[in-house]
């Protein structure tokens, strides 16, 4: 899955239960009946390492996703970068957070907040900023670039390992194993795979099994940039929606990945719930601004103000916190409005 290149991250985390509010509103307890805007809340905000730093067994030679064989001899200074923040999330969850020397703009969890950013535009690497940090290994995927920057890092003697950039639930274990192998910590990698698999399985089991599942449309909106897209098959949002027992409305009307939002398409999709990222919702001035976009007010979700927003740095990350993200989304969507 390739996400639009404008994803930014700032955790919107409200301890406790799902709240019936939009960005900027004062949180209040969700009503026992009735529907309205809701924020998907994650009470455990940070990464949770499976163990303290286990130490690396090096050197190792691994297959990079670009077909190159790469030998990693030193993993003492790690730079994990991609568009989703998932690589850094996995590195920290392996217990290697103290080795990380920089971050991308999508890495927003508290444990990494102090690190310098090496992707000033969101998806382009600053080679100069990276070289100043003197990493011994760079972990990335094809969501980040430009490719020449990665080649330049390799020519400078840095081990650069690319991970496959498929952002799906099924790909999460493979990503963990690839990153753990490159850093010489395969055993903690297997423990993290087991934990993430168990959390995803438990979250999916909590989904309702109604014969008439909710239809959810994911909208990627950036009002400040005039970007309005609807997700469909392969967008990543479809995986999260199916994981909570709902139907992805974009997929149902034949959309693939992300397509420009049209009033006709949205009305045809007829979503019961509209899902957005928290910063996207803020960029259109909250729920009222979203409902003012063409077509949204004519959908069941618009008429009932069933808007769910979730943190930019968690919803489509597909990293080590994926199970918690699914559970939070399920609670927000299937809570008091079910």
UniProtKB/TrEMBL annotation:
Q: Which residues form the signal peptide?
A: 1-20
Residue ranges occupied by any Fe/B12 periplasmic-binding domain in the UniProt entry: 79-337
What are the alphabetically sorted keywords of the record?
Answer: Signal
Please indicate if the UniProt record lists Signal as a keyword: yes
Record-linked InterPro entries: ABC_Transporter_SBP, ABC_transptr_periplasmic_BD
Give the similarity note. Belongs to the bacterial solute-binding protein 8 family.
The name this protein carries in UniProt is Iron complex transport system substrate-binding protein
Organism encoding this protein: Micromonospora echinospora (Micromonospora purpurea)
Q: What is the lineage of its organism?
A: Bacteria, Bacillati, Actinomycetota, Actinomycetes, Micromonosporales
